[in-house]
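Duplicate of #3305? Posting structure anyway:
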């Protein structure tokens, strides 16, 4: 069988997809900003002098004052230690990327049901009405519609092309769809790595904070002894467990949202694959 080599004209048509310039500044700024905000919340909100019965009189301890006697259960989180700001920052980072991914994935899903959209396009192509199929893509406004619209433009050009064989035209359409897909998928998967990473790291940070708190508590027990030391040990263990609770809670939110987004992205990816199959099969059947 002879090799099929699309002409330069077909190659130009197949590569008509415009590359999108995507900025990922949020992935660089958000984690740092969230950690800084986490420290501000821990130091100046939870650690405010008014929240403690015995605030640290030494003002040189500005970074980590030795506050004592928290006035509320929530304020006790301050005594969890210096890892608490990191855990708060991790939690804020998760919220930031959940909102960012929710907006992006919702936009990529477009309007209406993807399966119904593909069925309408198939109907218009069966009637050889490409313009109405393109109009459906404009209504869909999602990633599937974008890929389908890009493929339909090449589809329409191939109908009037008298130089290429049907098989070459199908290859040109398929290549255009692959290029459009390669531009859409990275946008959908971008920044999900933060959710998957924090899902693992937050739990470990929480456990590390708990262990450090336990070490401090048992150290006081060994140094002081007596009933007062036992009371401080019990209090220290309670404070240390705030790290575990915050770490596990952050990890749970990250895991749940990560799985939700990957499920939605898989559905969009399946719709893109189905749209590509629809175009190539339709052209091969209608324009032999």
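Output from current build:
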């Amino acid at each position: 069988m002879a090799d099929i080599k699309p002409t330069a004209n077909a190659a130009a048509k197949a590569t008509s997809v415009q590359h999108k310039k995507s900025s990922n500044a949020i992935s660089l700024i958000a984690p740092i900003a969230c950690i800084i905000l986490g420290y501000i919340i821990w130091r100046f909100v939870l650690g405010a002098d008014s929240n403690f019965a015995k605030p640290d009189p030494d003002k040189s301890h500005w970074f980590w004052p030795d506050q004592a006697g928290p006035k509320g259960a929530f304020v006790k989180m301050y005594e969890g230690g210096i890892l608490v700001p990191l855990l708060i920052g991790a939690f804020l980072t998760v919220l930031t990327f959940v909102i960012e991914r929710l907006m992006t994935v919702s936009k990529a899903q477009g309007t209406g049901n993807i399966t119904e959209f593909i069925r309408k396009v198939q109907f218009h192509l069966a009637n050889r009405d490409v313009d109405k199929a393109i109009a459906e893509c404009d209504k869909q406004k999602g990633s599937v519609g974008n890929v389908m619209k890009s493929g339909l433009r090449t589809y329409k050009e191939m109908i009037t092309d008298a130089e290429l064989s049907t098989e070459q035209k199908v290859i040109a359409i398929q290549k255009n769809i692959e290029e459009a897909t390669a531009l859409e998928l990275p946008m959908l998967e971008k920044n999900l790595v933060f959710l998957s990473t924090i899902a693992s790291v937050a739990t470990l940070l929480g456990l590390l904070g708990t262990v450090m708190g336990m070490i401090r508590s048992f150290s006081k027990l060994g140094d002081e002894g007596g009933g007062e030391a036992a009371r401080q040990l019990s209090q220290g263990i309670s404070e240390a467990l705030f790290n575990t609770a915050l770490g596990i809670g952050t990890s749970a939110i990250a895991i749940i949202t990560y799985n939700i987004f990957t499920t939605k992205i898989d559905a969009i990816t399946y719709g893109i694959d189905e749209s590509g199959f629809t175009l190539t099969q339709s052209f091969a059947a209608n324009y032999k």
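Confirmed duplicate; merging threads. Residues 226-286 form the longest helix (61 residues). The first strand starts at residue 52 and ends at 54.
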